[in-house]
Design goal:
By secondary structure, the protein is an alpha/beta fold. It has helices at residues 3-12, 16-24, 38-54, 67-73, 90-100, 114-122, 146-154, 164-172, 185-194, 200-206, 219-231, 246-255, 273-277, 289-292, 314-317, 333-341, 350-362, 364-380, 384-393, and strands at 30-35, 60-64, 81-84, 102-108, 126-132, 158-161, 178-180, 211-217, 237-241, 260-262, 280-282, 296-301, 323-325, 344-346. A seven-stranded parallel beta sheet has the order 3-2-1-4-5-6-7, with helices on both faces. A seven-stranded parallel beta sheet has the order 10-11-9-8-12-13-14, with helices on both faces. The longest helix has 17 residues, at 38-54.
């Protein structure tokens, strides 16, 4: 967590519990969702929104851990309140639960708050965790992570997992109620794919033609994209960094020999010849990534060279395009499956990226087949949201 995030983290928790107490006072039967990060929020979002549609008059609380989700979503209209989660101490947990008195508590992926979760168990509050992914080499299966295994066994009413492998592993640990639900993120992604949307600046820059898209890029992918653009001056490249750092954006633009433009330079303005002639457009803004993939014929997803896994692979795949990412991908289950099927491709280095680009632009049957595989995989994986709602709230 960088200095700015630490500052936001601390400021957001100043006077937090009195704010929660004032907000929830007089309300009963509150449905409480918790997500740690923005990625987990996107996973939970379709379930939150389906809950709001099913219970329009119930109060819904969303708590978060990271400023990366609180800052953009603190006024999220589908819930009644968004707060940071108080610290996991006996005093803070007792005061928080006394204020909220949730009827349901729903966590996402791998949240681990032992004091809070044990308190929910003692109060006999229905507690769920969804979108859990466990792999054979997961640290949760190691001897030293016994405390987390105890939480899984005793604190959740139901553990909802992505796949059968996760279910099998958790059942071997003695987790009593594990159910395969799939990934609700697919429902959200597909709803975005199917909604009409366009951006006038990007429309003008592309000239109505599909381009190569690099999304959620980090330093490694930015460097590779600059080299790729210089190697292929005939192509156009749309780059959406994972985090907006003006210095890094300017550094990337300076490396593109055939011209690159910043999106922010054209907001509220008419496109000019410089924009139209630029080989690369860098989106130095947030909140549009999942929709911007619709401009692509193929995609590179950032994170797989330096992070634990690439970022969302299904966002570009749902539009029907081949997806590439770095060699660190084992913790991205959709990436693993799409590689097996032929819709995604792992890259080791710059040469692999260049070969992938050449294959996508020069081999039409390859592009069509890998695009079909990606699109069909995403469509077939949809439908987790209503199943999760039925587990939590029962049939309609």
């Amino acid at each position: 967590m960088n200095t700015e995030k630490i500052k936001l983290f601390l400021e957001g928790r100043r006077g937090l519990l009195p704010k929660i107490e004032a907000a929830c006072r007089g309300h009963n039967d509150i449905i409480w969702f918790h997500v740690a990060s923005y990625g987990e929020f996107e996973e939970a979002r379709p379930v939150i929104e389906a809950t709001r549609a099913r219970f329009p008059d119930r109060k819904i609380l969303l708590t978060v851990f990271s400023p990366t989700v609180y800052v953009p979503m603190h006024q999220y209209s589908k819930v009644d309140w968004v707060f940071y989660l108080p610290l996991d101490t006996p005093w803070d947990v007792r005061r928080f639960l006394d204020a909220v008195r949730p009827s349901k508590a729903i966590f996402t992926i791998t949240d681990f708050w032992p004091v809070l979760l044990n308190a929910l168990r003692r109060r006999k509050i229905d507690t769920y965790i969804m979108s859990v992914r466990i792999e054979p080499d997961s640290h949760h299966l190691k001897w030293y992570d016994w405390n987390y295994r105890q939480i899984l066994r005793h604190c959740y009413t139901t553990v909802m997992v992505h796949n059968q492998e996760s279910r099998d592993l958790l059942e071997k640990l003695g987790v009593p109620d594990v159910r395969v639900m799939g990934d609700p993120r697919l429902d959200r992604v597909l709803s975005i794919v199917n909604e009409p949307w366009n951006n006038a600046i990007v429309d003008a820059w592309t000239g109505g033609k599909k381009v190569f898209v690099a999304g959620s890029t980090l330093d490694a992918e930015d460097e590779m994209m600059a080299i790729l653009a210089n190697n292929h001056p005939e192509g156009k490249f749309l780059v959406i960094p994972h985090e907006i750092d003006p210095q890094k954006v300017d550094a990337l633009i300076s490396k593109v020999q055939n011209g690159a433009a910043k999106y922010s330079d054209y907001q509220g303005k008419n496109p000019d010849e410089k924009l139209l002639a630029s080989q690369m457009l860098v989106m130095d803004t947030v909140g549009m990534l999942s929709r911007l993939y619709r401009y692509g014929f193929a995609a590179l997803v950032g994170g797989g060279f330096t992070d634990n896994a690439p970022h969302s692979v299904v966002e570009p795949a749902a539009y029907g395009m081949p997806v590439a990412f770095g060699p660190i991908f084992r913790r991205e289950p959709h990436g693993v499956q799409l590689i097996k099927l032929g819709g995604a491709f792992s890259l080791k280095n710059q040469e692999d990226l260049d070969a992938f680009y050449v294959k996508c632009t020069g081999d039409k049957p390859f592009l069509e087949e890998s695009s079909r595989i990606s699109k069909e995989y995403c469509a077939a994986s949809a439908g987790a949201t209503p199943k999760i709602l039925e587990v939590i709230f029962g049939p309609i």
